[in-house]
Design goal:
By secondary structure, the protein is mostly helical. It has helices at 2-6, 10-52. The longest helix has 43 residues, at 10-52.
């Protein structure tokens, strides 16, 4: 196993995996927040565009 080369202790591997999961979840949460902000900006611009379009 690849991790056993760097983390020979099982407890250390568990800590590494837990830390990695935590980091990935934090990255996901950050991306979700950024995506929500982008979607809100797009929606706002589309509404502005529709309201300024003459009929």
């Amino acid at each position: 196993m690849f991790l056993s080369c760097f983390f020979p202790d099982e407890e250390t591997r568990k800590q590494y995996r837990a830390h990695k999961i935590s980091m990935l979840k934090a990255m996901r949460d950050s991306l979700e927040a950024r995506l929500a902000a982008l979607n809100a900006a797009i929606e706002t611009l589309e509404r502005q565009q529709q309201s300024s379009t003459p009929e």
